[in-house]
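We modelled the chain as a single entity of 197 amino acids. Its sequence is:
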Amino acid sequence: MDLLHKIFVIISFCLSFLKSNSQTRIQELSAVQYNQNVIISYLISAGNSCAGYQILKSNDSLNFDVIFDYAGICGESTKSQNITYSDESPQKNKKNYYKVLIQPSDYSNVISVFYTDLAEKGYLLMQNPITQNLSLVSDLNSGDLKIYNQMGKLTLSVSPNEQGLYHEDISWLGNGIYYFILENAKGKPLHGKFIKE
């Protein structure tokens, strides 16, 4: 019986350890694009004070680097503490992944935000080559997106939604290279091309 009792104690300890580690104090973690930055905010729920936190960032959701390291005392015993951080160098036109670590081992879930920068071309083609859905983002002042085949024949005209997104099922288009012109309220049209597979 003594051996069974020891096994029971060890299993109980392991289960309580796993349960306590599965509940993070990091709550309401969010990331949003704001102008040229990504704003990360979260709450550290009330409880024991902690010995610092880190904000980590990844480009692939697997390999994270520390982008902010706060080594001071954090957390309050009676109320939640709100934390906000501004990532001033997000990867442009890609998903940016974030998570938070309260020292020594309290990790948040991973969140992501797609950072859109239209400054270079005035538009962002979400996928190229395209197999089914064309998704193109532009500023709110753009007009119709006109798509031409290699012979210069107008094949399709797409209007933007309220957010400036052009979204259209083009699975019916034959495979090949297509050119587009994005009419712009500023008078200068934007040009580009994509491959349909």
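As a brief sanity check on the tokenised model: The chain has two domains: 2-115, 123-196. The chain is about 10% helix and 50% strand.
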